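Sorry to interrupt, but I need a hand with the structure work. Could you add the entry underneath, on a fresh line?
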Amino acid sequence: MIRILDLPGDRTVAAGGRARRSEWARGWGRFKRYRPGLVGLGFILVLLVLAVVPDLFAPYPYTQVFRRMRGVGPSWAHPLGFDHIGRDMLSRIIWGSRVALLVGVLATGIAVVIGVTVGAIAGFIGGRIDAFLSRIVDALMAYPLLVLLITLAAVLGPSLVTVVVIIGLTTWAQYARVVRADILSLREREFVLAAQSQGASNGRIVFRHLIPNVLGPVIVLASLGVGGIILLEAALSFLGLGAQPPTASWGGMLADGRAFILTYPHIAIAPGVMISLTVLAFNLAGDGLRDALDPRQKDAALQR
């Protein structure tokens, strides 16, 4: 069956899915031309493997305490040394990747679902509903995010589940704003008018025809946002409002090393470097996705 897909700025004939696969292939080709994006993606894949099966790569249990090894520096047997109570730093770094990616991916997923839904409804329906939802988005984006997170975490109680939920429920506004702007430009397109003339409901038009056409910018924004969410989780854990001991968290490890920064600097350096590298990797991968998925970035990608 041959189907005509009316996409923004492009009209593609999809026969048996071949054109769609070809578009994904072209996008992957544009992504590969941006070498830093490939490096970032490779680092993220390594972290993902470590997060899924940390017990296979961690040389020791992350809660095991080695006697008389408090604050001892790196060695061949323990490449990152020991923390302030004698636990192996490498094992805790590996287990901490699970917390970082779990919070980053789950909180981003919650924010994307809420933001895309709210933005699509506001942009398609318009009127008072659009004005009401837009004021909520403006208020949420105007309030200092870290202050809001600290307040909610303190009220609800510190835990990993709390961190995921409150970050997801407070970071969706940026997705709603982007989706609303795109929906406003798409709702008068011919394929929307054709769906309305055939009696399609508003819900079907929004979720079947409009949202698929705005997923490109959302995916790019989400890939860039994961790094920021990992930073927020590290900040909350650093303040004692995130994952609680003995759970290994990069932010909590930074907090542990703060008091020993002059005597045992490796305790704070290792998690700090991992946080920086992880955020950088997601930003580089997000830049590559922007070139691959945004047609306006094709020329820039080809010049690299």
